Amino acid sequence: MQDITAIQSALRNQEYSLSTLVAQYLERIESTQSLNIYIDVYDTEIKEQAKIIDEKLAANHPLGRCFGMVISVKDVICQKEKKVTAASGILQNFESLYTATALQRLIDEDALVIGKVNCDQFGMGSSNENSVYGPTRNADNDQYTPGGSSGASAVSVQAGTCLLALGSDTGGSVRQPAGFTGLFGLKPTYGRISRYGLIAYGSSFDQIGLLGKNMAELALALNVMAGMDPMDPTSVDHQVPDYSQALSTSSKPLKIAFFKEAINHEGLDPQIKTAHENLIQKLESQGHTCSPVGFDLLDYIVPTYYTLTTAEASTNLSRYDGLRYGHQEKGQKDLTELVTANRTAGFSMEVKRRIMLGSFVLSTGYYEAYYGKAQKIRRMLKDRVEEIFGEYDLILMPISPMPAWEIGQKRSSPTEMYLADIYTVLANLVGNPALALPLSTHKNGLKFGFQVLSKGFSEEKLLNFAQYYNS
Ligand code: GLN
Predict the structure, then answer these.
(1) Which atom of ligand 1 is nearest to the CA of 417?
(2) pLDDT attached to residue 277
(3) In sequence order, what are the beta bridge partners of 185?
(4) 173 ligand 1 Cβ < 6 A
(5) Of 89, 170, 411, 429, which has the fewest beta carbons less than 10 angstroms from its beta carbon?
């Protein structure tokens, strides 16, 4: 598939028009309907927008940096006057009043949005099965999940319905589906991209991320989206380097760390383990050094993540009462009954489970024992990771301990699904950037990848590594 640089030069040279390209994407959306990717397709609007850009191209008018970039948007990212529901019944038919800063920046540079895509409800899940719209299917085998929660973002690119997808990553939701669909998936540093207009799940974990087949569009979109936003006080005023430039500089030998405990974990699928061992050898033979380092906190990661994110989710989701907007049940006799009925009908089982767990760990009497302790472990994780980055350029890790699974296979076992997050949640707990890259195909026929993490605000290192690895 052509990357954004090739698309832009083809458009400028009039090899094809943006209208033709958009028509092809729309046809793909039509022919892949059974995968259940899109919630809304903006077909009339995008055709008109493409026509305007074609006219500007013909007249040699200046265009934004992202012209020719057609994107899909996860159903947790707001766009003005478009439906946004977090794949939840509680926000049924809700239309946003404003556009997320990160998305607005892309639109201002002439990127075109083709539609809203499915996801796990409020980003809670690892298989895109937890959605009011039903599961999204993996395009490599429609009996399998594409991962989640940004599962449909991944499939939208995998199935060729757009060039790039916006997802969100609280604990792996961009990287894990990228792995299951053979894509690159970037979770930027916490604070790199504004969260204004991203429906909150765990506010101290969430970041908007990107999924694509090529590094060129990931780097370009990050260039445009990154940077401080007065509307999000957690966005950081840290210089935005030229990420596209980072792709063209040659890679120097890197010091790469990997965790013995991660590679030798009993839960890691043998084929995925072997692929990582081979990868390490390959990187060594290319001149990098790959060193095993100790990480004895590994088994604390999942409990810490679920203690803290459910706590944050329980407070974030308390705003949904169905009174001013969202789902409202009829015929209740008082306010308490009404709010209870709205929330009971609106939230899925998984969301309720997390609200209850979060309320429990925050409750008087248990706060110190769970929430307080988890915060301390988060600090320890951060210190250990900082220490490692004092010595190494990258940390290499698997993405998921298991390959993509069949739809329905893990539905009855939430804890098993939580444990599958063992390798992805660290980057969110410590705030560092992480990039998923394709690695191999499992004997079940589905793809899997690996990830690299780097120091905070050094996404260019990840992009540069990926470009080098890809070439
Ligand atoms: N699977 C993780 C969870 O359910 C990650 C979700 C995410 O990153 N949004 O919490």
Answers:
(1) 1
(2) 98
(3) 211, 436
(4) yes
(5) 411
Given this model, what pLDDT does residue 250 score?
A: 76
* Residues designated catalytic: 74, 149, 173
In the prediction, which pLDDT does 252 show?
A: 86
Q: How far is the C-alpha of 80 from the C-alpha of 115, rounded, in Å?
A: 13
| Residue 435 φ/ψ, nearest 5 degrees | -130, 130
Q: Average pLDDT for consecutive 10-residue bins of the chain (471 residues)?
A: 96 98 98 98 98 98 98 98 98 96 98 98 97 98 98 98 98 98 98 98 98 98 98 96 90 93 96 98 95 96 98 98 94 95 97 98 95 98 98 98 96 89 98 98 98 98 91 75
Is the minimum distance from the CB of 149 to ligand 1 under 6 angstroms?
A: yes
First-to-last C-alpha distance (Å) of the chain:
15
Residue appearing with tokens 């309907």: 33
Determine the distance separating the centroid of ligand 1 and the alpha carbon of 160, expressed in angstroms.
25
CA distances (Å), 176 to each of 24, 181, 194, in order? 28, 9, 22
- The whole-angstrom separation of Cα 319 and Cα 333 is 21
Q: Is the CB of 322 under 6 A from ligand 1?
A: no
Task: Report the atom number in ligand 1 closest to the C-alpha of 123.
Answer: 9
Quick one: 4-246 is in which CATH superfamily?
A: Amidase signature (AS) domain (3.90.1300.10)
Q: Is 89 left (phi over 0), alpha (psi -120 to 50) or beta?
A: alpha
pLDDT of residue 115: 98
pLDDT of residue 431: 98
Give Cα 224 to chain centroid, integer Å. 17
Q: What is the pLDDT of residue 307?
A: 98
